[in-house]
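Why predict the complex rather than its parts? Because the way molecules touch one another can change local conformation, and only a joint prediction can capture that. The input here totals 869 residues.
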Amino acid sequence: MKKRDFIKNMTGASLGVAALAFIPESFAIPLTPVVGNQTSRSKRAFPNVPVVTHEGKVVRFYDDLIKNKTVMINFTYTDCQGICPGMTANLKQVYKEFGDRMGKDIFMYSISLQPEHDTPAVLKAYTEMHRIKPGWTFLTGSKANIELLREHLGYKFSDPRLDKDKSEHLGVVKFGIEALERWGMAPALGDPKYLAEYVRWMEPNGARPVLSEMMG
Amino acid sequence: MFKKIIKATNFSRQEKMVERYMKEVNDIQAAGVSRRDLFKMGLTAGVGGLTAIGGGVFLPNLAEASNSSSSPGIISPPCTKPWSDPLPIPKTPVSVGNFTGPVAEKGQCLETQNLYNPGNGPIGAYENFTEARTEDHQRWDELGGLAACTKYELMAKEIDWNFYSAAEYPSFNSKVWTYVDMNPNSNGDYAAGVLRLKAQYGSPVLMRMYNGLPKNGRDTQGFGINQCSPHLHNAHNPPESDGGPMRFWDSGKWYDFWYPNIRAGFASTHKAGTYRNGLWCPGDWQETQSTLWFHDHRMDFTSQNVYKGLASFYTLFSKDINLDTDDETTGLRLPSGQYDIPLLFTDKVLDQTGQMFFDTFNIEGILGDQQTVNFKIKPYLTVDRRKYRFRFLDAGPSRFIELSLSNGARMTRIANCGNLLPKAQIVPSIRLGVAERADVIIDFSTYEPGTVIYLENRLEQLNGKGTTGKILASGSNTQLLKFIVSSATVVDNSAPLATLQTQVMVPFPDRTKNPVKIKRKFDFGTSNGAWVVNGQFFNPTVISAYPIEGSQEEWTLTSGGGWSHPVHIHHEEFQIVNRDGKAPAIDDLSRKDVVRIGDAAQATTGTSSITFDMQFRDWYGDYPMHCHNVVHEDHAMMIRWKIVPPTDPNAGK
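Output of the joint prediction:
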């Protein structure tokens, strides 16, 4: 049996697996998760799906991009004429704020909301046009995997109409220190200095708010 | 030009490989199994199930909503033995004559204190605590300084807590972060969990709050940050003791919060003080407050830290003017002592071991499928046949509630947002947005011993965005707390119900002597999924308004549909002038510090515009206005404003 056929056959066999999630109430089994340890939580929170970088490298989302890293994540797409160019420009300022920490212990990821169009080559061209430097990676992948990431990273609305509107998923960045399970979210067009500060404020020995700068 | 580049690019060999790989990945994904599982052939069920639900939206607890098959939620272990555990009664921290550490000062205390820090764990547990506060207390000397203060020592720390009944799940415990009294009460207990601090007007409180939360590297069960900023909600306090979003500090430090417990107007509109029935007090007695609460306010992490358990009551009494005295034989003769019980409502998702679960990636708002009262799922309270005062608080994080009694009896509401009403309202149900409070009198004297009455929340809410406003049928899902009427004969020295229902309590403050000079509008909206106020994103360096100290302003808040927002303003309560141009309804007829706008703000009717008058008195500095759906708040649905003297270059801007 060829591998492809094997997978095809599995589809039927694994129906039970897929159906579990949508099981009718009458014969529902408890789906209660165990908060457990950090490893099990991370597994649940971050799909370890393969994604492709703008350099054409296939990487695992959790293992290679998130695990033990301080990260900033947003969604974008190269064809976006609205908010995206400004957002990319703003995040470049955030990149500058982090200075030489970028690519060493802080990583930025921009995930394409239009993976069918944004092939690695398209993303590569986009990063070249915007002079994106190392430490900031643009990502694409299968439509299903990108959808999974969007849901898990909290870029999903319960209202299907709102959820369908791509532009509604563009305006915020998530930032986190994975090892400490600290995650926040802010407007992607916020003051870049403070977008970087929000990350530092979460760090055990990072910067703290300077009240005198905030008194208008 | 950009597109041309793309078209000119030929797919390289590497990219073709990537494409093939992705195709294969897609097929595996379509089959619903992971590559590894495929070859393991078996262990897939549990993993598949978890993958499908992890990070998704929560299911609300109400059965009516669980038919939604598209998004199966996380279901907490069922409570099949309800009403087995008694309601936890919030304990009162005890005051101390002197702090055990350095003497408190007007400015930052520069001495350190070597103290056990539970956040450090068993090894290296002692630490030199330092004071995190950098700002001086305003008007400290003028209001009596240290000598006038009643002192408390509390610590934010992790404790074990079972939200379920011990009879059903004896070994469950959740790592809960709460405020813990560092001094034992007369029973030798250290109050923890939901606390209830008792304060009196005229007696400033100095609360030394230590941060003993788990240090870095210790497991947080997936959410929460060990930095805190306890906000005393609705207090008329200076910003340095307000517990604002930017003033958080780390484990291993303390902060002296000074709560002057003085009424608004004392240094501005009512410098000479006021009299109630011949008794004098500083400020305007008609600004007297009763039920406040304190909760964490760390910017971006308020929802996580409050959900973690950092929320307690601060009940403020007014013995000085013989009003709300903490003694049912005096003043308004409200039920007091053991018959004055605060109830904190918060909903949780719990895992198979009873551990709290929180989705840090949720964007709309968190709904727990288990609603708790004072951190217990479905507790009971044996009540004496007499009158009680209950203080309801919706502690969120995102759920709106509407409380009623299962026997249809009406409740006598005496306070809204913690402020005594001009006269009690006799109501069948009370709706609360997150952070709203209601004090009610319930009279059990007319019921036969053994009578059972449930306190219910019958408000439908299907997601974290807000309520539908629909009232659900009464049933086991809507019951929160079971009252069992006892047979004991007890004395009730509180005023007769007819008196409590008709007596004048606190008339609305007269604002006509301080006419509105400035009107402002704040529109709450979204831009590409991010919150904006007046089209602007939150920026911590931006002050959006500069009200002049001593003045009154009129603010109008507007909001589109699709969401419900309980908007909270720090510093002083306000009075609603109109809702969508109409005169305030019963819910709005009060001094308020939280107002509901957006979808189903009242009944099933949405509100797009609310106008209120607010005074800015006695203290200088910055305060926030924000949505108290704490998930929205953490996603920057907030502005800051600052009270300035008339001579300030920004005054009135």
